[in-house]
Amino acid sequence: MDSAAIALLIAATLNAGTVLAIAALGLLINERAGIVNLGAEGLMLVAAVAGFATAVHSGSDLLAFAAGAAAGAVLAAAFGVLVIWLNTNQYASGLALSLFGAGLSAFVGVRYTQEKLGPRAHYEIPGLADLPFIGPALFKHHPMVYVALALTVALSWFLYRSRAGLVLRAVGESPESAHALGYPVRRLRLLAVVAGGALCGLAGAYLSVIYTPLWVEGLVAGKGWIALALTTFATWRPARVLLGAYLFGGVTMLQFHLQGQGVQIPSQLLTALPYLATVVVLVLISRNPTWIRINMPASLGKPFHPGS
Fold first, then answer.
1. Does residue 308 fall inside a structural domain?
2. What pTM was estimated for this model as a whole?
3. Are 206 and 61 in contact (CB under 8 A)?
4. Which of 30, 252, 267, 281 has its Cβ near the most Cβ atoms within 10 Å?
């Protein structure tokens, strides 16, 4: 590939990785608080149709992002009440949420499958966008691409440099100790779940309004599950989540560039590449369970009962 094609591949990788990064950062907040949410796929689907419908009716991308984030937050709050206050099984509840989201989005989205959004705006950073190679590769993206970078930095600072982040990590490591110190463990976990759901919703809205932009049933196509796997891949660290998101985004976009270059590989295999990469990475990571145990929040997936 020539330099122009490589620049386009880098740009496409950043764009594709943004969806995964925002969703995975949301799931990272959940898991740092000790909650496993397997419903990310459903959250993103509902948020995607909510964001797309809002964009169709309002013509505003900002309102679409707000609608997607709100939809994700509301569904995540319902999930949080179930697993935190009613003590339902986190894994079963997450799977139920994923199935519910898939069904609800398909039902609501029937009327939007033929809808089209207006002309999409083109963004670039003045001065930098005109630079050879790095201009088209790095400086001609939607602002949400740079928001993902800012979120990664902000979450890293929050978790490791702020008192609130220390408390959140304490809740995920030892909720009994945090409760003994007077912290409202259940409320903190619910706030983390809602914040994580809002970010998953934002990722879903970005997917349907900017990345595609369209709505079809099953639009998310497994990206919620990849985002979930990214948290383990990144050993629960925001910077590694971002790098992992770009890695998987690059694998996703590589299939299209290989097809465009006329590489004679079955299209089904190319389509499966991102998911094969996910499985391979998780298998490699699981070969060292001690490393995972050291980095994983100690109370991840474990219910907390005050006074027990």
1. no
2. 0.93
3. no
4. 30
Q: Is residue 13 part of a domain?
A: yes
For residues 87 and 79, is the Cβ–Cβ distance under 8 A?
Answer: no
- How many domains is the chain partitioned into structurally? 1
- Domain assignment of residue 225, yes or no: yes
Contact status, residue 34 vs residue 171, Cβ threshold 8 Å? yes
Token duo for residue 2: 């020539």
CA distance 196 to 177: 23
Structural domain including 79 reads: 3-295
CATH of the domain at 154: 1.10.3470
Q: Under DSSP, is residue 199 helix (H, G, I), strand (E, B) or coil? A: helix
Backbone angles phi, psi at 186, to 5 degrees: -65, -45
Domain for residue 304, yes or no? no
